[in-house]
């Protein structure tokens, strides 16, 4: 029983990490119809710069980690906003070009990161408490999972609050439904869409820093690896559904953990089979809209 509980809780923790990456993808696609394959680059760059700042503030301390998380948020938001302004803004409604440009950016930035920080993973230090465990009904749960779960819950709450309770959020939602009408009212929808990209990038940046805590290292390919799971989560949850991304993140991670333990390390295969099953039975995803973009 304790083993199953441990797998479930650690699965939720891994799902929280997947959600931090997938939330930006889902938000950007749901509100703007853009599939951003460069999303992993935001995560990786934030992870590296967060590590660089964190170790200078205090290697392996809470101060260093919090500084790294703040840097990750800011870097992710800035890089995402610049990407939208320079590359994406001219390509709305041109989906093939969007894919080609963002895939190219993703590949080019991996090579850039390898040139700056090397090809080998860099081990990081983290606060002592995060390296310990907490006993839950006999299950020794790694403490870093609690940090991931808390961060994902805060991000989800803030995004929902922003979209539903702020003037900018209302403009963004209205612009998605009828961009021409909102523009006719004198509102610059393009600026609002840049904000959406920045929010998605900030979530990815935070995910990049926390991914280095989860794995104990940061590498040039870290964002690419997590991006694969983020796309799986986004498709299973329903393209453009933030709630779907949250539910699918937990389901995918728990399935992965259980299959790795009980079925001889077949977690990735189980996730792919789950993706195939959802696409066959419910192509729009668990909580996706019936009229897909």
From TrEMBL:
<feature type="transmembrane region" description="Helical">
    <location>
        <begin position="146"/>
        <end position="171"/>
    </location>
</feature>
<keyword id="KW-0029">Amino-acid transport</keyword>
<keyword id="KW-0472">Membrane</keyword>
<comment type="similarity">
    <text>Belongs to the binding-protein-dependent transport system permease family. LivHM subfamily.</text>
</comment>
<feature type="transmembrane region" description="Helical">
    <location>
        <begin position="261"/>
        <end position="281"/>
    </location>
</feature>
<dbReference type="InterPro" id="IPR052157">
    <property type="entry name" value="BCAA_transport_permease"/>
</dbReference>
<keyword id="KW-1003">Cell membrane</keyword>
<keyword id="KW-0813">Transport</keyword>
<feature type="transmembrane region" description="Helical">
    <location>
        <begin position="99"/>
        <end position="117"/>
    </location>
</feature>
<protein>
    <submittedName>
        <fullName>Branched-chain amino acid ABC transporter permease</fullName>
    </submittedName>
</protein>
<dbReference type="Pfam" id="PF02653">
    <property type="entry name" value="BPD_transp_2"/>
</dbReference>
<dbReference type="InterPro" id="IPR001851">
    <property type="entry name" value="ABC_transp_permease"/>
</dbReference>
<feature type="transmembrane region" description="Helical">
    <location>
        <begin position="192"/>
        <end position="215"/>
    </location>
</feature>
<feature type="transmembrane region" description="Helical">
    <location>
        <begin position="227"/>
        <end position="254"/>
    </location>
</feature>
<keyword id="KW-1133">Transmembrane helix</keyword>
<keyword id="KW-0812">Transmembrane</keyword>
<feature type="transmembrane region" description="Helical">
    <location>
        <begin position="64"/>
        <end position="87"/>
    </location>
</feature>
């Amino acid at each position: 029983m304790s083993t199953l509980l441990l797998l479930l809780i650690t699965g939720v923790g891994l799902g929280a990490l997947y959600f931090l990456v997938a939330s930006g993808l889902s938000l950007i696609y749901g509100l703007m119809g853009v599939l951003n394959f460069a999303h992993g680059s935001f995560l990786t760059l934030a992870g590296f710069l967060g590590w660089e700042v964190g170790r200078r503030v205090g290697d392996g301390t809470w101060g260093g980690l919090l500084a790294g998380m703040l840097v990750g948020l800011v870097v992710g938001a800035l890089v995402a906003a610049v990407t939208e302004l320079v590359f994406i803004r001219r390509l709305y409604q041109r989906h093939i070009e969007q894919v080609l440009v963002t895939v190219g950016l993703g590949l080019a930035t991996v090579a850039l990161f390898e040139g700056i920080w090397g090809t080998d993973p860099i081990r990081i230090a983290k606060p002592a408490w995060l390296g310990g465990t907490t006993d839950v009904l006999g299950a020794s749960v790694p403490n870093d999972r609690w940090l991931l779960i808390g961060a994902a819950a805060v991000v989800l709450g803030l995004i929902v609050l922003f979209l539903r309770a702020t003037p900018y959020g209302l403009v963004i939602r209205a612009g998605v439904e009828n961009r021409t009408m909102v523009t006719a009212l004198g509102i610059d929808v393009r600026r609002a869409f840049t904000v959406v990209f920045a929010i998605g990038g900030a979530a990815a940046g935070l995910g990049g820093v926390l991914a280095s805590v989860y794995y104990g290292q940061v590498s040039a390919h870290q964002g690419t690896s997590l991006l694969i799971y983020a796309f799986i989560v986004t498709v299973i949850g329903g393209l453009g559904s933030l709630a779907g991304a949250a539910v699918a993140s937990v389901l995918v991670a728990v399935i992965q953990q259980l299959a790795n333990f009980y079925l001889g390390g077949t977690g990735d295969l189980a996730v792919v089979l789950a993706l195939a099953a959802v696409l066959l039975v419910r192509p729009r995803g668990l909580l996706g809209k019936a009229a897909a973009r």
